[in-house]
């Protein structure tokens, strides 16, 4: 069985357990009492001052790479990313496969002013209320992980709750589905979640299928400024970057280098 199926199977069990611990009605109440969200979609709709927007990710580990950075301090990373000029943050909340947590998301969000994406495998509306309740400003919806009808309902729930949504695709067919269900922002994952192969040409290829004027996010496998420049040439100005920033000796300098701004760090 491929890893995505395995993750989704475990996730379904986790969501059922969470519902037993705290019923939907209670999470819903917490979501409704949550302070207003920060503007995620708006911050990615046009290129930033340097012509580039980076969603900088906090990721301790992944199924393809194992541990990426043991003992990662989410507060220090969040602040370094913001100082360097990140447009938004992405924080993994999956525990079992990515060693993330709601705690990481809350700590990171409290440390900065930029919007924060809950990076997880969203398969149930319960998780969308949960995201809003813990303070996320946006959620990830992976087309390959859910039925198309769920996607439509999830997107309307996000709008209702004031949450942004990043709809992740990996091929032409998924892009079509995402657009047909009204995705406000498409993320093209350069990593194939079934084989782990990563190729930034995927973003360049799929960019051509995007309606004029609609922004997209190139996700995964962005190792340095050369990759950013190749994607900029293809008309892509939003980037979701994890591993290369988390592994760098100094995440602030690494992010400045992606953005093409001067070095200088207090990390
Ligand atoms: O670490 P990278 O190669 O820079 O990739 C970041 C991000 O795109 C990746 O973490 C990701 C993209 N889609 C996901 C879905 C679930 C978990 C993780 C992901």
From TrEMBL:
Enzyme Commission no: 4.1.1.48
Occurrences of domain Indole-3-glycerol phosphate synthase (ranges): 4-258
UniProt xrefs under InterPro entries: Aldolase_TIM, Indole-3-glycerol_P_synth, Indole-3-glycerol_P_synth_dom, Indole-3-GlycerolPSynthase_CS, RibuloseP-bd_barrel
Keywords, alphabetical: Amino-acid biosynthesis, Aromatic amino acid biosynthesis, Decarboxylase, Lyase, Tryptophan biosynthesis
Catalytically driven reaction(s): 1-(2-carboxyphenylamino)-1-deoxy-D-ribulose 5-phosphate + H(+) = (1S,2R)-1-C-(indol-3-yl)glycerol 3-phosphate + CO2 + H2O
Presence of the UniProt keyword Amino-acid biosynthesis in the record: yes
Coiled coil: none
MF GO annotations: indole-3-glycerol-phosphate synthase activity; phosphoribosylanthranilate isomerase activity
Keyword GTP-binding belongs to the record: no
SUPFAM superfamilies hit by this protein: Ribulose-phoshate binding barrel (SSF51366)
Highest taxon of source: Bacteria
Pfam family, one: IGPS
GO biological process: L-tryptophan biosynthetic process
NCBIfam families given in the database record: PRK00278.2-4 (NF001377)
Name by which UniProt lists this protein: Indole-3-glycerol phosphate synthase
Lineage: Bacteria, Pseudomonadati, Thermodesulfobacteriota, Syntrophobacteria, Syntrophobacterales
